Amino acid sequence: MKPKTILSLIVILISLIILIQNTEVVTFSILFWKLTMSKIVLLVITIILGFLIGFLIRPTVLRKKYKIG
Length: 69
Known about the structure:
Strand 1 (about 25-30) and strand 2 (about 35-40) form a beta hairpin. A two-stranded antiparallel ribbon has the order 1-2. It starts with a helix and ends with a helix. The chain contains two helices and two strands, in the order H-E-E-H. The longest helix is centred in the C-terminal third of the chain and has 28 residues, at about 40-65. It has helices at about 5-20, 40-65; strands at about 25-30, 35-40. By secondary structure, it is of the alpha+beta class.
């Protein structure tokens, strides 16, 4: 297996372990809103947002690094 695949599997496994251990309900405040949700849902949303931001920023970083376009 490639190192990148092994690293991805390790990150996924650690993420799943963290999600399984955090099941209690939390209150999350944004400005005037208060949201009550399970920590699992909050962590999943955070992980997905992190991957999306990384995915969207990556082309910009690669363009600057290799001076494309």
